[in-house]
């Protein structure tokens, strides 16, 4: 007997019927970049279609996000107020704290997640406190991260997402949040975050590139799968509500591995470099727009429950009707 798998591809209705993986706007997280100043909505050069917004310009943007059916945002703050110990990162009137308060004053329909890290606020651009040799001091950094997370919770964040890759930061943050009564504020841990070349456009957007050296003493070696599983296990033990693999497209095996081993929600971060490569290829006519959908679908198929992606608004065209 000849096998005829094409029978299940015969029409769009049949293809829709047998589709194994579906994307849903409700599982997407849309990152936004907030800058100091007024009346600013300016396209980020390294990330076509992604903008810097000043806080007063968030009204229209939040409305637009909600109109796209997006329910989750992740806020990144961009500031010139930098020092060696990231003081502006935990200031009550810091850029992220003000942005969170603004979004919360506009709507209750968005889950507001904040990125917790020091690199946007340190003058040296590293994700922690440096010792005399320029090495990031893990344990002194934990206290600062906990302060940043707490200040985000106090501003109204629903969930905090530590992206620094220090050892023990999930436990340190959980402890401080609980001590201050923020038991409902969740932790989305960047658990398996690799020292990737695909963060380039983001560092441009967030003004967070390290002034010297690289992040290889804290972010993971791209070659390591088993170590990624260990990082995930430790974060769950310390109290992470969800764990993340980052980047996504070059790490689909890591996403699948985490999905198969752990029962907490798995988040994947479809990062700036992955976004800009596809966007630029589309703008040059080298790829169809549908490539965006295919890329994000592959992350879901690999096992991600939740996807952080700059494509979220673009995907509304494909999700549902596709
Ligand atoms: C902060 C942080 C980075 C990203 C998210 N949070 C940059 C980095 O680690 O250098 C990258 C996101 C992206 O590339 O889209 N530590």
Write structural notes for this entry.
- This protein is an alpha/beta fold and 322 residues long.
- It is 36% helix and 17% strand.
- The protein is built from 11 helices and 10 strands.
- The protein has helices at residues 12-18, 58-67, 95-106, 138-155, 169-179, 200-206, 226-238, 252-261, 272-283, 290-301, 312-315; strands at 28-35, 41-43, 51-54, 72-78, 111-116, 159-162, 186-193, 242-246, 266-270, 306-309.
- An 8-stranded parallel barrel has the order 1-4-5-6-7-8-9-10, surrounded by 7 helices.
- Helix 3 (95-106) packs parallel to helix 4.
- The two termini are 33 Å apart.
- The mean pLDDT is 97.
- The chain binds ligand PBG.
- Residues 115, 117, 119, 127, 163, 199, 202-203, 208, 271-272 line the site of ligand PBG.
- The site of ligand PBG has 11 residues, from helix 6.
How many angstroms does the end-to-end distance come to? Answer: 33 Å
Radius of gyration: 20 Å
Q: How would you classify the helix and strand content by structural class?
A: alpha/beta
Helical fraction: 25-40%
| Count of beta strands | 10
- What do the pLDDT scores average to? 97
Give the tags.
single chain, 322 residues, alpha/beta, 17% strand
Question: What is the secondary structure topology, with strand pairs?
Answer:
Layout: H1 12-18, E1 28-35, E2 41-43, E3 51-54, H2 58-67, E4 72-78, H3 95-106, E5 111-116, H4 138-155, E6 159-162, H5 169-179, E7 186-193, H6 200-206, H7 226-238, E8 242-246, H8 252-261, E9 266-270, H9 272-283, H10 290-301, E10 306-309, H11 312-315
Parallel strand pairs: 1-3, 1-4, 1-10, 4-5, 5-6, 6-7, 7-8, 8-9, 9-10
Antiparallel strand pairs: 2-3
This protein binds ligand PBG.
Ligand PBG binds next to helix 6.
